[in-house]
């Protein structure tokens, strides 16, 4: 699952059209879904962005979601229309810094990104300026692994084309012009989310076994670990058999599984 | 090789930092205040990061020379380790680093001169005994040599400190700097060895055993003392054939006169490290079979551990004299 976060409806519109997303009615934020994607329109600023990420997160199941903040930004020297992935995000209110983690070569150039409270018109340092990224990043990484959160910005203004002259009607066009790049980043993130979901999947028979006996929380962890090992070592052998069903206590079940695992015939590679 | 190089602001002007940055003009340089902001933060996945790790250049502020864990020694009571790097170019599935660190990025501490000062101070505190300094604990000593220049900086240092021993522990064949230097009798080049089929399965990125042996052959010809580390010993149904063949292969190359030491190591991990590794690789047979926990450590069930160890020890002693052999300390062969 990939969750897209935009501040403005105009930023969302090309994404909704491109990914053929459907609106979901009756929510505190504008929400869209389709094709393994969610999109939430947060509104402008950090509070709105953090709220939107948390809201979206509460609606998801437990599988690990990836997050991509897409939006416009100003920059001291980059051309209008160019796309940037943030490699360092600083919340200028409190100087908190975040470092997005790249697990593949970035799909476009990268840049430091300052998240500011008021639109930046001085472009004081050689970096990008936006109003949401630090909040999206900080909030999303509470719910998922850092590799699954990125911020992609399309430059809308710079010293030659200052924000004061910016026509909001151009926003959708800027995002639309970078759909290919957005698509590449989105595909990488969806792939990572899928990989994590597979690694964290509940092992076969876990629900069945944990429903038959009472396991303490510690024992549930042990059971999960044992069943994972079973799946790895003896993927074709049934776990729930007559022997197992004869046990009365959860402790006996765990001991039995442990013993069975020790009897597995282990060859780590084909011929030595 | 690196898309990103993070560098602590404090050492960004250090000559070693600058020369590494110059080597990678295409890499994006990202200054940071402390390497821990990137390396130690919560919510990271080592397995995902290992796809494309970044390089972090940092300053090691303290705790640069530490007592080596029990069982790490090869003949001395006084064993220390120092880590100029954290993490490794290779990706061995049994490596404890995956469970130890949250990040797979490679950290290089560029303040070698501070390490050397601390080592020198430690040596001075030993008047009569010979301390050992191990360098490949949190990394492979040679794998990143092309970037780190580690041996070029530390071999001359240990040449001047003959009363101490220095161990380079490696699976790498980056031995050029050693082959072009006068060998040092107090520097042991110790190669980790695993049966070839297991090495190709579980030591991703590391040179095959045959190439390691070629490197050993060249080094011993130049007079470098060689160490062999069969660590960790890995169990499976065919372990006897695997290790018997490996020893035969190894000792058809290694000459006993140049052999400094041979040691065995148990597959043994702190519980939390193992738990993290198993979470990262729930589908990995190596981490699924025959392991039990006792006193906070996870290792092979005692019968397996004993069988594996005793078989390897017996086989090895057919090739090497007793005084060069350092089996697993009995404390690591715990009774579970
Ligand atoms: S070579 Fe050593 S340090 Fe590197 S991954 Fe393998 S076991 Fe770990």
Helix and strand topology:
The complex is a heterodimer of chains A (272) and B (336).
Chain A: E1 2-6, H1 9-18, E2 22-24, E3 30-34, E4 37-41, H2 46-59, E5 66-75, E6 83-91, E7 96-98, E8 110-115, E9 128-130, H3 133-140, E10 149-157, H4 171-177, H5 179-199, H6 206-212, H7 217-233, H8 242-245, H9 250-262
Helix pairs in contact in A: 1-4, 2-3, 7-9
Chain B: E1 4-8, H1 15-23, E2 28-32, H2 36-39, H3 46-49, E3 55-58, E4 66-67, E5 79-81, E6 85-86, E7 91-92, H4 97-100, E8 106-109, H5 112-124, E9 132-134, H6 145-148, H7 150-159, E10 165-170, H8 176-179, E11 187-192, H9 196-202, E12 203-204, H10 209-221, E13 226-230, H11 239-251, E14 259-264, E15 268-270, H12 271-280, E16 291-294, E17 297-300, H13 302-316, E18 325-326
Parallel strand pairs in B: 1-2, 1-3, 3-8, 5-9, 9-10, 10-11, 11-13, 13-14, 14-18
Antiparallel strand pairs in B: 4-5, 6-8, 7-12, 15-17, 16-17
Bound molecules: iron/sulfur cluster.
Low-confidence stretches of chain B: none
Strand order of the largest sheet of chain B: 4-5-9-10-11-13-14-18
Distance between the termini of chain B: 44 Å
Estimated structural class of chain A: alpha/beta
- Helix residue percentage of chain A: 25-40%
Average pLDDT of chain B, rounded to a whole number, is: 93
Using only C-alpha atoms, the radius of gyration of chain B works out to 20 Å
Task: Classify the fold: give the CATH topology of chain B.
Answer: pyruvate-formate lyase- activating enzyme
**Main pleated-sheet profile of chain B:** 8 strands, mixed
According to DSSP, the number of beta strands of chain B is 18
Spatial separation of the terminal alpha carbons of chain A: 41 Å
- What is the CATH domain class of chain B? Alpha Beta
Overall geometry of chain B comes to globular
Major β-sheet profile of chain A:
5 strands, mixed, barrel
Bound compounds, each kind once, are:
iron/sulfur cluster
Look at the structure and name the CATH superfamily of the largest domain in chain A. Nucleoside phosphorylase domain
The residue-averaged pLDDT of chain A reads 94
Strand content of chain A: 15-25%
Q: What number of domains of chain A?
A: 2
